[in-house]
Amino acid sequence: MAKAGKTAELWLDAVDVSQYFNALGVAFDIDTAETSTFKATYKTFIEGLPSVKVDAKGFYDLTEDAQLTTFLRNGGSTLTAFPAGAVAIGDLGRLIEAHETSLVESSPVGGAVLVSFTAISNGIVGIGQALHILGTDVNTTTGATKDDTAATSTGWRAHLHVTGGTGGGSWIVKLQDATAANFSDGADVTGGAFTSVAGAATASQRLVGASGATLRRYVRYVATRTGGAGGDSITFGLAYSRN
User: Fold this and answer.
1) Is 199 helix (H, G, I), strand (E, B) or coil?
2) pLDDT tens digits, residue range 180-223?
3) How far, in Å, CA of 210 to CA of 155, rounded?
4) Is the distance from CB of 95 to CB of 34 less than 8 angstroms?
């Protein structure tokens, strides 16, 4: 089914930069080396290393500028791209450990100041999905269950983007999995707890499971508040992938 590009989202570290861009591209490439020989009927090739590049274009803004210029020199960031948006659990996303390679700002005399940037991946890219769309949870919350139809034993990865919060407590977001849809045998995923985030802080974190780690069929998140008071909130987006 075709999707409208207007719903695309881009989460960069602790900022939802979607509102500043109007074009997003995620390109997957694999190096190839030609091995054709004399008298061959067709050219032949062997595969090399894969790479992923992200291109985004849009309009200049002070918040966006601060994030992108920091991103340019910080040695790597947590980037999650949703080509068709993250409006529901299960919407497809790309989980990328990204390094910005280009930042261009242009100022036409008769138009808006424009921005474009390019980033490349540094390792495996997670072909995953949203587990919590960017939004606010109040007090301790257990997320809806995502059914991935089967368990996997190939590892996993997860991205957490905390864009804000309220109150004086702190929050721990973690992954849980189960073999039963009602989570009767549910448990915390080994290594699936993000570091505690203070109530009013912003943060981005990335978790990577071991290469042979098992993730059972059903997955959900739990956001647990410690300290603070009733009504405290956390605003975040969460995505995960099976390797």
Assistant:
1) coil
2) 999 999 999 999 999 999 988 999 999 999 999 999 999 999 99
3) 5
4) no
Give the 3-state secondary structure of residue 243.
coil
**Burial profile 201-224: b = 16 or more Cβ within 10 angstroms, e = fewer:** ebbbbbbbbeeebebbbbbbbbbb
Contact 54, 25 (CB under 8 A): yes
Residue 237, number of CB atoms within 10 A of its CB: 23
What's the N-to-C CA distance of the chain in angstroms?
25
Tokens of 117: 């940037």
- Are the C-beta atoms of 235 and 163 separated by less than 8 Å? yes
> Residue 236: what pLDDT?
98
- Give me the mean pLDDT over the 167-176 stretch: 96
| Tens-digit pLDDT profile for residues 69-88 | 888 766 789 999 999 999 99
Show the tokens assigned to 25. 């591209």
At a CB cut-off of 8 Å and minimum separation 6, what does 192 contact? 158, 174, 175, 176, 207, 209
**Can you tell me the distance from the alpha carbon of 69 to that of 104, in angstroms, rounded to the nearest whole number?**
10
Cα angle: 97, vertex 205, 144; to 5 degrees: 105
